[in-house]
Amino acid sequence: MNRELQNKAPIMEALEAFKKMRVVPFDVPGHKHGRGNPELTAFLGEQCMMVDVNSMKPLDNLCHPVSVIREAEKLAADAFGSTNAFLMTNGTTSAVQAMILSTCKKEDKIILPRNVHRSVINALILCGAVPVYVNPHTHDRLGIALGMSVSEVEAAIKANPDAVAVLVNNPTYYGICSDLRSITNIAHEHNMLVLVDEAHGTHFYFGKDMPVSAMAADADIASVSMHKSGGSLTQSSFLLTGKRINHNRVRQIINLTQTTSGSYLLMSSLDVSRKNLALNGEHIYSKVVAMADYARNEINKIGDYYAYAGELINGDTIYDFDNTKLSVNTLEIGLAGIEVYDILRDEYDIQTEFGDLANFLAYLSAGDRFRDIERLVSALAEIRRRYKHSKLGMLKQEYISPKVVVAPQQAFYSLNKSLPIRECSGRVCTEFVMCYPPGIPILAPGEEITDDIIEYIIYSKEKGSTLTGTEDPNVEYINVLS
Amino acid sequence: MELWFSERHTPNVKLSIRVDKQLVSVQSDFQRIDIYDSNEFGRFLTLDGYMMLTEMDEFIYHDMIVHVPMAVHPSPKNILVVGAGDGGVARELCKYDCVEHIDLVEIDEKVVEVCKEYLPETAIGLYDKRISIYFEDGLKFIRRYNNEYDLIIVDSTDPFGPGEGLFAKEFYGNCYKALKEDGIMINQHESPFYKEDALIVQRVHKRIIDTFDICRLYQAHIPTYPSGHWLFGFASKKYHPIKDLKTKQWKALGIETKYYNTKLHVGAFALPNYVEELLKNVEPED
Question: Which residues, other chains included, contact A69 with Cβ-Cβ below 8 Å and sequence gap of 6+?
């Protein structure tokens, strides 16, 4: 990485120059620097509206970048250590879809863990690729899905030599990392590409002593949610590609679904955040890790809660742990993670990232302060004092091995009918059922519905999880193959 | 030359005090600390530009935050003071022989340092043998205690900045846990007058009534605080602030006060209608 070059933020600089030009706008957007929408301008601020502009010669064009956007892409590639980088304004979902659509065609096999984000399986619906799932295993005590076992990936590769790619989810939402280097080596030996959903791993590229990043592990494509731990605006993201990938082809694929009105607010936020992380990332993330370590220590001192980290490492399915993640197991309190998540927000004005049946996750970043950590810890101590009861009857199982009966695309587009959830046992699902967040499907199109899954869905609803994905907004009916 | 200190009490109102000279200005890890001399209010301390105390009117605040609970609790021996690095609360507490030990938790060591040097009249309280001073976040300090204190006095700054955590529901819950079964918590409860401040009074009251069985507010008139109309919170597990007032015993102690007396004690709990209304809105219906 060239530190001197990283000082530049070409998109931001072009926008600054544009402001000074005082150009008369006879183009879109129609709010014309905010003047046409005073209430919105008062709400968001004039500075913000002023740079909400359309593509034009001095500002380049996201669909076919040749000047400042192209330069920002090159700087990002330099910062992330990739061959190429793409600025994404349709969320990391669009990056994940571009990654899969660039490498898989209809009926191609792709090896992946089942605990992927819905965007991965959505991409399979779009392109018609067939998933080969590797069981991610579940941690006995914590009830969280783990990383991919190298030997199981190898077995899947050998059993499916015609597969075109392996997708790794690294790190998971909870901070669990797989042995990315070994998986990449094995996949490459068998002429398969390696795709990494790195939505929660932006900091791996900039922090010190972090788990290995996708590009450092020589993986081929990675989707990086800059807006999560990287500090850019919500919905902005990077797609990174390595030396085996034809980036011009990837651009064509991106342009199949990407907006032609790429937001300059999002693009400049990517540009400025990249600059910040390149120059200050090491310092920023060492502070984040120090805060997370402190919080873990204090939370574990309360008793009954278990804030876990590196001690889980087992050399395979937990090859490494992302210490910036503050994941806390709540079962010993007698509360589901989602219940603690709700109490924190409703009674203590503390918003955490998500809660599942046994854990909740507090997302830490550059913006956190020690005094806010004290509030979280104190609130957890209070919740224990006020709510602790027997954990009898608490479920924790988060992973139910899916039985894929038909490919996602085929299931999604087949004739189906809607049945009450309790009558679905033995049927093949044609839609998603998931808790959001984290957005990892309990059921994906093409999978058989079992009694265990039905029980799990009903229990999650009872505990207050927000279930989504089904055509029925109340998630009382599920679409199944007719 | 005219030199004025001004503090905005709302976006449209400010209070200005003519300054004779500025004595010190330091930036600590937490806040900016300033000490000024003035003709009208004597020496005064500000944190991040907000008035904390003046030599002229600090007796009102310190009398009311200390002597009210001390005249109710029959034997307050072990006391926790959160904030109050200026020493004023400790000074008043140390007038009582029944007090055996005081833990004083101040987040900012620099405040104590500056007050010891420039505000000896209040800082005198910090030198008593019965006091242990801890420099840490009160919210963190209190987590480790259970059934420990007879009285907790929360002398916080404002609900923004470093004192934010001392207005959180989890803090009051932690205080409840740290108090003995007949313990009392007194907190600086902001002003009910200006709209934004009134909302804070309401939110804080809601958080305290969710935690303590007995919660009453009382008032005092403090000229240099926004609107001058100031509230304190009396939260308790057992004692009622008026029914359990020990008038005779307290008078027998012969403690000299400039503002507080037991008649005023009773009167201070009688609140204006608009304040009663404000509080009733968040109280559960009987």
Answer: A10, A11, A59, A60, A61, A62, A87, A267
